[in-house]
Amino acid sequence: MALTRDFKETVAARVQTDPAFAQALLDEAIDLFVNGDAESSKLILRDLVNSTVGFEALAEEVHKPAKSLHRMLSHQGNPTMSNISAVFAAVKRQITVGVHERVDVA
């Protein structure tokens, strides 16, 4: 049997090493949200949070408990517009910082 890697681990690794991929995922999450597929958008956003800022740091940044953020971005979650906006903004800032750090290092 061939060795396999968990899909979420693969996505997280790619997000951390490929800023264009991270940005594409964020763009897709925003597009899905705007076009009425909030459920898929939340799940992509959850993967981005796990791969970038992390739920504990996000909780501090948006002044919400990490457990609440996990629930918001779950399949059954129902975040308010202000909460989802804050999460999108935090992930966007993290991705932008990551891109600039990689450019400066190279």
Cα-to-Cα separation, first versus last residue: 39 Å
Q: Roughly how many Å is the radius of gyration? A: 14 Å
Shape assignment: globular
β-sheet strand percentage? under 5%
Structural class: mainly alpha
Helical proportion, percent range:
over 70%
Instruction: Write down the overall mean pLDDT.
Output: 86
Total number of distinct structural domains = 1
Number of helices: 6
Q: How many strands appear in the DSSP assignment?
A: 0
Which regions have little confidence, pLDDT < 50, spanning 5+ residues? 99-106
Helices and strands in order:
Blueprint: H1 7-17, H2 19-34, H3 38-51, H4 55-62, H5 66-72, H6 81-105
Helix pairs in contact: 1-2, 1-3, 2-3, 2-6, 4-5
